[in-house]
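Follow-up to my earlier ticket, as requested here are the two runs.
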Amino acid sequence: MIWCVEDDASIRDIEVYALQSTGIEARGFEDGTSFWEALNGGEKPELAVIDVMLPGISGIDLLRRMKASSELCDIPVVMATAKDTEYDKITGLDLGADYYLTKPFGVMELVSCVKAVLRRAEADGLTAAEVADFQALPGNGLKATLDGQPLCGGNADFIRTAAGIPAPMQAQAQALAEAGKTPLFFARGGQLLGIIAVADVLKPDSPQAIRELRNMGIRVVMLTGDGSFHMNLNEACTAVSYELPIITVIFNNQVLGMVRQWQTAFYGKRFSQTDPHRKTNFVKLAEGFGLKGYRCTNLAEFQTAFAEALKNKGPTWIECMIDKDEKVLPMIPGGGDINDIIMK
């Protein structure tokens, strides 16, 4: 159930109708007070679309109250308002809003936004299965316990002690070995899960290896900062020549971020040689190399760009603009150890 808080009845009806017409349950509230009373009455929506300018309790106050409540803080919130100044957006996002829609917006934009935020909230709620009793066994493989069941992976002789290997898979493993690869098997709870192959033998020439990489459908995503990327971006020529499926995500804070972070944390912000005053346009530079480039200033733009990058045949650059004082954490100070770790 999606709750829409909007004092303009016509806009509120359109929001509710647009969501319901796509199969999403929705309910409208005409002011902040009735919405807050419903929240405290035991009901909880999957997501709330809240206007900023509301009679009674304002949208910003509602957001602040929700994020301060242990019972309500996990509800995703989309702010919808005609106030489109940077200050208004930053205020809402800093308080914990998941998205900011600026009026006038299209009904499909609203629906797409709601679906995207719900997907992200669902992904954030996923938890990884607990792995315990991990053991690395050199020359054989590994053993562990996953959700209470024994898990193991390794060569055929090692796996046979935990699970049988059917004849077709043995033949597949033999073919992989003859092709210069090492077959590795995995089993859980006495049941064989599958097989993967690790390449051992170098191909006689790079083009052959590159063709195999591309034909396997493998995508490589490289995360880098603008400073380090400036030092080796010429390799884009090679990536374009061989149509390598590499997506490069460039976090651009326009400074030498790690050095600046150290100068901030340990040297009283006495900055030295960390701002090269570069004006590189990575999107145009990408086009100059013959590849596709994108520039993103928020999460929604990045999600769109990344989805497009996955469709591209060759290399792609995605430039993500971030604040020059964005921190990389955790970190350990010089001369320190794990007990001195800095988390914020």
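Run two:
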Amino acid sequence: MSAGAAITEQQKNAPRANMIKYFFMVLFIKNEYDTNMNSMRQVPVFTSFTINNLNLKNRFVMAAAADHLDNDIETRKARFARLATGNIGLIISGAMRLHNIDSWKEVIAAVHQHNGKIALQLVTESGPGVSPWSDDDRDAIAVSVLAEDNAYFNPIVQYGKHHEATEEELKHIINTYAQAAVKAKEIGADAVEIHAAHQNFLSQMLSPITNKQENLMSSVAFNYLSY
């Protein structure tokens, strides 16, 4: 057999040899993938988890974040449905107030349609009496009266006029949260998250910078927080 013929024979057999090589390569990759996936399933974050009566398929949680879609429910529904299909164990909504809770009913249904779980983040109503700032000429309500040189004065009391919350005002804030939690359950939410950040009234209770009650542990504000 001539050299030219030998090369031609090799060329003829090359595709078959390559196919066999690629076949075993794919088999190897698939085997590695299956092994890795099985290993990943053993990692705690991928395992199911139960909080009281709430069963989650894994431990991935999407933290709450405002989406500014109160006036576009269809877009919000599509967004949360897409998150649910991504296998997130628990999705937490952005800030939700009592007056707009009904609009979340369709969003919750969209999440459940894709076997997802959703918690609603509850915040106090805006306006004097339930908020750390005032948007009109009335006093804002604060846990304590702050001096003008207080580092947190401007972010918390934007208009400078504020007073220490009375017991009746504290009861009103608590009742607002309670009503929102009951309503959230009625429309099908799987859980609720209490918002206590960003100078919110509850966050003021937690910091000695903004809670100037003489006896923090026995103060009306702290007692209601414990409640």
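The only thing I checked on run two: The first helix runs from residue 3 to 42. Let me know what else you need.
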